């Protein structure tokens, strides 16, 4: 039962004073028998009241408005959490029976949303791959593991080559990306054979062997398996998501699980810094930090470090409805 201390800081520094900053945040960890939250402190500049609600997918969402003029806003989420190992599927139901059960879920809420396929021109190329990887005797569980391994083996993990705006076709052509790209591609493969699949956002915490994406925001997929329920599968690391994966939110895709969204009134130029640190059980800390500038919808200055999460935050900022005072 590992215990992790996670700090996720989002900092906005504006060129001038802004006001009426309205934001939606999904920074609250899922609470169930596998995740025990010991403490969660959320500190926001100006201490605005945060109203929370549960969205359609069961995620806890916070919303707040910081009305006073300000040139700096920090959203600081500090979390202490214990994770519990999740048992693997027994997979002792006949394969045909499991596939038949999945077939009958096609028009059942809420599985309908998790079976809908995004438009993807490369489907004609991916379908033969899916059929080649899948054997007639394979159960949904074994099929999901094979698809996970295929993504892991055939797509290169490279930070910065994609953004959350990158399409499935671009990812397919690049044969590279990061965690959210791998998750989206795995979901396509699962949905093609009738396995409901959903996107998971959260953190991957360090272990002794090291994992890609550890100590930072992370994403993976969950597959619905008959007789078991939702099983987390991490194609970035070719593993079943277990006690080193801390879940924040689930949804159809990345857009349902965005950690921070907002609008404000004021000047356009500002600087955004996002940092995530995860405490090891032995007291060591792994930290990832992204810093970049957005001004009048311009590109960040040369030399600024930007991975895919940073690029997502840039996109959100560029889409904000800014109004001059």
From TrEMBL:
Domain Transglutaminase-like: 171-237
Pfam families: Bact_transglu_N (PF08379), Transglut_core (PF01841)
SMART domains: TGc
Domain of life: Bacteria
Protein name, as recorded: Transglutaminase family protein
